[in-house]
Write a structure and sequence with these properties.
This protein is mainly α and 161 residues long. It has six helices and three strands, in the order H-E-H-H-E-E-H-H-H. A three-stranded antiparallel β-sheet has the order 1-3-2. Strand 2 and strand 3 form a beta hairpin. The protein is elongated.
C-alpha cells in the first residue's frame, strides 16, 4: 500500500461509517428530490474525480470490474431499500435500514472489498478508492430512490406535501 492510498482508504472508511450510522438510525426523509440524490451524487463525483485524476486508460479488466461493481451496487441498493422501514410520525416521514438492511449493506461491502482485492491482484488501475466511492454512491442512490418510492406509496402525507 503506497502513501497515496492511505488517505483514500481513510476517506472510504469514514464514508462507510457515517453512512451506516445515519442509515441505521431513524432519519427524517424530506419531501425533496435533493434529499435523495445530493449525498450519493457527491460520492459519485468524488469517486469519478479520483478515477480521472489518475489519468490511466481503462483496460478490459478495469471495465469488467467497474460493471460488476455497478451491478453489485444496484442489486444491494434495491435489496436494502426494499427492507428499509418507513413510517409516519407527527406528519413527517422517517426511515431506517434496520438489521436486515445492515446485513445487506455489510454483505455488499464485504463482496465489494473482495472485488477490489481481486482487481488489485489482477493489476486493475480502478480497483481502489475512486471505484469504491462510485460504487457506494450508486448503491446509496438506488437505495434512496427505493426508500423514497416506499414513502410515496406508504405515507400519504409524504406524497401530498
Amino acid at each position: 500500500m503506497s502513501f497515496g492510498t492511505v488517505p483514500n482508504a481513510l476517506v472510504v472508511i469514514a464514508v462507510v461509517v457515517v453512512v451506516l450510522a445515519r442509515r441505521l438510525s431513524w432519519s427524517e426523509l424530506e419531501n425533496s428530490d435533493t434529499d435523495v440524490w445530493r449525498g450519493p451524487v457527491v460520492l459519485i463525483g468524488v469517486g469519478v474525480y479520483q478515477l480521472y485524476d489518475r489519468h490511466t486508460g481503462l483496460g478490459v479488466v478495469d471495465v469488467t470490474l467497474l460493471v460488476i461493481g455497478a451491478a453489485l451496487a444496484l442489486v444491494a441498493g434495491v435489496a436494502s431499500g426494499r427492507v428499509a422501514q418507513v413510517e409516519r410520525r407527527a406528519g413527517k416521514v422517517f426511515f431506517r435500514l434496520g438489521m436486515p438492511g445492515l446485513g445487506i449493506m455489510v454483505a455488499y461491502l464485504v463482496v465489494r472489498l473482495g472485488l477490489a482485492g481481486v482487481g488489485h491482484l489482477l493489476g486493475a488501475s480502478v480497483s481502489g478508492g475512486g471505484a469504491l466511492l462510485v460504487s457506494m454512491g450508486a448503491n446509496l442512490l438506488t437505495q434512496s430512490l427505493i426508500i423514497q418510492s416506499k414513502a410515496h406509496r406508504d405515507a400519504e402525507e409524504y406524497s401530498t406535501q
